[in-house]
Amino acid sequence: MDIPESMKSELARWSNGTGIDLESWVGCMGNFSLAVGYATVFWPEFVAFENYILRKDFPEPGLRNIEKQPGVTGKDIEWHMNHMHLDNIQALGCDDISKDKLELLGKTLKEIHEVKLQWQVPGKPCAVEFYIPEDPEDFTQYQISFWQIAHKTKESIE
C-alpha cells in the first residue's frame, strides 16, 4: 500500500529518526477496541431487504421516508441508505485528516465493497462509487456508497 505523503514525515520520526513501516506503526499506536470497530467499516455487513441490498441495521423508517419522495428510484434509495461519509470514520475534529488519506481510504473501501458485494450477493451485481468532492479540501464530502446495477436503468418506484 502506498503511504500517504501526509504520513511519511511522522513515520520517519520513529526509532530515533530511522523510521518505521506502516504495519509496525499500527502495532505501536493502535488498540484492539479500535481494530474491532474498524472491522465494521472495512468488512461491512449487508442484508437483502425487499428489493434492496443495504447495510445491516439500516433504519427502516428512514427507508420508508425516502421511498415516499416523488420521482425517487431504487438507485436513489440504495445510494442514500448505503452512503458513508469518510470523515465519520474518526472522531469529530480529528486533526490529521487530509485529502491524500481520504483518497487512499476511499479507494480501499471501494475495492472492499466491490469484493464483499460480489461474494455476498453474486446474483445482484452492484456498482460502488467513491465520491470525491469538487473542492478536495471539503473533507466532509468524501463518500462511498453502492446500489444494485439493475436499479440504475429503472424508472422511479412510484
Helix content: 40-55%
Largest sheet: 3 strands, antiparallel
Beta-strand fraction estimate: 5-15%
Q: Report the total helices.
A: 7
**Total number of beta strands:** 5
Structural class: alpha+beta
Mean pLDDT: 92
* Run of helices and strands: HHHEEHHEHEEH
**Could you give the distance between the termini?**
45 Å
Rg calculated over all Cα atoms: 18 Å
Q: Which overall shape is indicated by the principal axes computed on the Cα atoms?
A: elongated
Low-confidence stretches: none
Please list the strands of the largest sheet in the order they lie side by side: 3-5-4
What is this structure's SSE topology?
Layout: H1 5-13, H2 22-29, H3 32-42, E1 46-49, E2 52-55, H4 60-67, H5 74-82, E3 84-85, H6 99-120, E4 126-131, E5 143-148, H7 149-152
Antiparallel strand pairs: 1-2, 3-5, 4-5
Give an account of the 3D structure.
The chain is 45% helix and 14% strand. It is an alpha+beta fold and 158 residues long. It has a domain at 44-152. The strands form 2 sheets. A 3-stranded antiparallel β-sheet has the order 3-5-4. A hairpin with a 2-residue loop joins strand 1 and strand 2. The protein starts with a helix and ends in a 6-residue tail after the last helix.
